[in-house]
Amino acid sequence: MNFARDSQPAPGSPRFIDNYGQTAGIPAPSGLEALAAGLGATQASIAPKYFYNALGSRLFEAITVLDEYYPTRTEARIFDKASGDIAQAIAASGITRPCLIDLGAGNCAKSARLIPWLQPQQYVPVDISVDFLRESAGQVQTAFPALDIVGIGMDFSQSLVLPSEVQTHDRVFFYPGSSLGNFSPEEALVFLKQISDAHQGRARGLLLGIDLVKDKAVLEAAYDDALGVTAAFNKNVLLHINDLIGADFDVRQWRHVALFNEADSRIEMYLQAECDLTVRWPGGERRFLAGERIHTENSCKYTLESMSELLENAGFSGIRYWTDPDQWFAVFWAAV
Description:
- The protein has a 9-stranded mixed beta sheet, sandwiched between helices. Strands 8-9-12 form a 3-stranded antiparallel beta sheet. It has a two-stranded antiparallel ribbon with strand order 10-11.
- Helix 3 (about 70-90) packs parallel to helix 4 (about 110-120).
- The model has no long low-confidence stretch (mean pLDDT about 90).
- It is of the alpha/beta class.
- Helices cover about 35% and strands about 25% of the residues.
- The chain has 2 domains: about 30-55 and about 215-300, no CATH class; about 60-215 and about 300-335, 3-Layer(aba) Sandwich (Rossmann fold), CATH 3.40.50.150.
């Protein structure tokens, strides 16, 4: 796997390695083919990773402070209360100066809260939104000037093979925000096995944030807020697709839809055509009828028991978790 490295980072700046190609404006050809195939499928779909261009990343930041969106603040309260216990649990696994690998790092704020507790030897933020990650990693470097930081622009859903600059020992993967819920349980199992695999992730452990099952009304409001920020976030994926494959989506022709599928224990997000329309891109097109939907995200919700079982099946042990008083959210530590 080839990684594009910064030739000479500025003094006091993190090293940065781009394996996504965002600097060229497009993902790899296989990614473009997958995008077109998703749009042409019987149930049209766009992978949720495409939410996160620069604007999408900032819209998600706005979502996290909405009254309806409880996950970010609930998870933060768990970390505020339990960071000492979490650090002790990691140390009890024989890890004293971890390499903290932050998957889907975004603005890196969650790791920044943990760094004083975990005292990592190296911090590795990973994200698909490359320019946004560069800025965020730089802010962490300013806050912790002595910390070795290696930012990586890559699609970790496709591979967890990391560049040689990332230390191979005492790797602790950090995957907060319940982003694992974007995978189906079957996909999540495969992904978790990659983390625990000695060749792929080479992990010593995983620190994981997971949203728990709760009242349907609470869940649906969190993904369909009154201000319409989540709707803008969802619609922005169409603008990103326009940039990536030269499509001609008009966001004014689409409506945001979010619903809780109780049978599959997941939030489902869609974009619904408001009228009959045709979307075109170089080499293809798709006719949508009024009311037809593009599936943009699943967010699976777990119980404490079902997530513990999933981690065990993926090869983890010594599983511990911390929750808020209402058990709306949980942080898991699982050792390898």
